[in-house]
Design brief:
Number of domains: 3
Number of strands: 14
CATH class of the largest domain: Alpha Beta
Shape: elongated
CATH topology of the largest domain: Rossmann fold
Largest sheet: 6 strands, parallel
CATH superfamily of the largest domain: Response regulator
Strand content: 15-25%
Radius of gyration: 23 Å
Order of helices and strands: HHHEHEHHEHEEHEEEHEHEHEEHEE
Strand order of the largest sheet: 2-1-3-4-5-13
Helix content: 40-55%
Amino acid sequence: MASIREVAALANVSVATVSRVLNNDNTYKMREETRQRVWDAIAQTGYRHKTRSNPHDAISVPMGKGVGCILSVTKDKYRDPYFMSIYAGIEQRLAQKGYSVAFLKTYYEFQEPAVLRAILDDPPLGLILMEQLSPSLFRNLRARIPVCIGIETGYPDIDVVGYDHFEAGMRITEHLISKGHRKIAFVGGSVLRKKSGASRRYLGFMAAMQLAGLPVRPEWVLDCQWDELICIDLVKALMAQPDTPTAICAASDLMAMATLSALYSIGVSVPGQVAVIGLSNIQLSQFSSPPLTTYSIPAEEIGHVAVDLFEERLQGCDLPPRKVYLPITKVVRASV
């Protein structure tokens, strides 16, 4: 087993610096670059830090045959119905195969040094990622955890399961076009990200509009940051413009339902004045007013496939990294 001195030598820092990183000691200021170099060295050497005996100084992460999950949510991790459906599929399949969930964390919880230290000290059998991590954090986890599986992430060197976001964006837009709509707005999150490029659902929307010879009007493209309250405000502002769309293409059911709420509050009838379509088919979408037309994403099945891929890798599968896309299906209701 590697020693703390080997970690210090590889990171080109003192033993005391390594100790401060491991124990989240912020008595002295430390550059983030130095801290990350220490974590990289820990991952490369396989060093295992013995946590303190005081139960308040360490975070217990159950092992056994456990698999950890990292959620892609910005709020209460148990609130998002789409990711909770995926998680339900993961939990169900793990139980069927005799495994358990070691932990369920959000990306923001994972940024806590004590949480990360506990997981690196006693890593689970596998990790299912529903969030794109920073390259350095991903390297650290990959070095310590036997199997990592991605869900709707862009990692090129691990198995990833999900659905085709570009195709989904095209299909929800094409449905509106097939109903005769020519003035179509788009609402979603991460619409024009500078670092990682535009949302693929938005790119699918743009492609469908261009193929139909329809303009994409910048003032009708709403980036609500996946926040329902922001979405409501943006839709109200959209409908206050001199010229308004006849249809709104929402990149998720939650944003579509927020859109319906905004339209109702200002007296705009759906679909009489404006049609609305969503994406995901969460359970609540059938009870919106009016019931939401959407495309169903097989969320629980995505969780099942992620666990199946995990077990195959754990048992020695050496195929190249696989990208598995499950099909989406149209659910016609009354909002279009």
